Amino acid sequence: QDITPERVLELLPHGQVISSHSTKVVQIPHDLVVKYGHFVKAAEAQSIMLVSENTSIPVPSVLLVFKKEHDTYIVMRLIRGRTLQDCWEELSNPLREEVLDQFTEYVTELRFLSSEGHTPGPLDGGKCEGQWWTQYGAGPFKTYQDLLSWLNRKLSQSSRTHPLFSDEYPLVFTHQDLCPMNLILDDSNKLWVMDWGMAGWYPAYFEYACVKSPEAYMATRTGWISAALPRLPNYEAEASKLEIMRFALTFLPFC
Question: Boundaries of each Aminoglycoside phosphotransferase domain copy (predicted)?
């Protein structure tokens, strides 16, 4: 049976709830998953399709995107497996290395996508969202210089002694939340990358900073971060500047 918005809305009340936070994820028949809510953006589906069409990274297949009232719905194929949050600690060392090799390859592939013709941030040209953009988001930014000006204003508000961000680092396609909860290992030990809701074109140091951040550490509480960080290009100096910005992100979000 063809999947339509009407059919999805009919099935949702009887589905299996996977997540029931502000963004809801529900499994419905025919091995489908529906992610929906006020904070879900069609740009997430755009990101998944960009990655699917231009890399070898395993991501869910997007079958349908639609909007009803204030909520956006993304219908995808169900990916069966276990999150690294649940299984990392019990994996053998050889299997951990295999998983890390896949992870390294995925990040490399993302960084080779061309940002030519794209504005900074999400693919729909909307606000930048994630832990470095205040709880309200920031932008949208028309140019890389606009984005840098915003970052440097927040950095200066937090500390006047640190050198500013520069444009020496290119914009690369960035997931922004490569935590164990968003990485699924299937029965064939293939690693799938989920939850592309914060993905977009960001400075090259953002992926490293997002994986390293205290926020990520508190969310994972596994050995994943210490294993994954050495596999990423090291941007310790820039990541430190982003951490220093947290004062302004918290207390001066609109300045």
Answer: 41-212
pTM value is 0.94
Q: At what angle do helices 236-244 and 144-158 cross, to 10 degrees?
A: 60
Domains 5-77 and 82-251 alike in fold: no
Sheet containing strand 62-68, strands side by side: 16-20, 24-28, 32-37, 71-77, 62-68
CATH topology classification for 5-77: Phosphorylase Kinase; domain 1 (3.30.200)
Look at residue 25 and give its three-state secondary structure: strand
* Tens of pLDDT, residues 5-32: 999 999 999 999 999 888 999 999 999 9
pLDDT in tens, 102-136: 999 999 999 999 999 999 999 999 999 999 999 99
Q: Is the dihedral of CA 202, 44, 99, 216 positive or negative?
A: positive
Pull the structure tokens for residue 43: 């740009």
Domain map of the chain by residue range? 5-77, 82-251
| Sequence-ordered strand ranges (E) for the chain | 16-20, 24-28, 32-37, 62-68, 71-77, 82-83, 171-174, 183-185, 191-193, 200-203
Report the DSSP pairing between strands 191-193 and 183-185.
Answer: antiparallel
